[in-house]
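To the structural biology subgroup,

Please find below the input and predicted structure for Emp24 gp25l p24 family of membrane trafficking proteins, which we are adding to the shared reference set this quarter. The sequence is reproduced verbatim from the submission form. If anyone notices a discrepancy with their own records, reply to this email rather than editing the shared folder directly, so we keep one authoritative version.
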Amino acid sequence: MQKQDPYCFMTPVKKYQDIQVNYMISGINEEQVSFTVSYVNGGDIYADSGKRENEVVVKAKEDSKVNLCWQKLDRKTKKLTFNFQVTSIDSDAKAGSQTVDRISNSVQRMQNKLDTISRNVYMQNEMDRQHSDLIGVCFGQIYFITQFFTSKSTKMGKDNNPFGRSMV
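Predicted structure (tokenized):
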């Protein structure tokens, strides 16, 4: 949010649907933001300001389009992160076999994605462990090489000639 203009997002709703909005503001003076939920054709459903993060649930009273709007109250740049969900109208209806099948398929896809994420996390941890082992070996080699050349230079002393000739 860089300009003073409201940052709005519009979504269609039907009467009695719940709109759940979660948001978080980051930046300077994070509380200097107002948030409103209003019908496109006019009329506020919800308005609040001074909150860095919030979870709001409102119920639509008519079939319409709803604006979710944030506006900063100062001139400082802010970052807005939000998530919203509109409940299904027939959320109270009993699930049929098609609904159960869809949910089962969704759960299976989610399980596959979670398995993939788990494997990726394991592989990343394994790679990090190997890198830390390699770094330890490198530091050990540097230490031994440094000790080798340091001990050589102290053994030579001032009287020893590294080229094996006597000095004139």
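Summary notes: The CA atoms of residues 105 and 161 lie 81 Å apart. The chain is about 35% helix and 35% strand.

Regards,
Lab coordination
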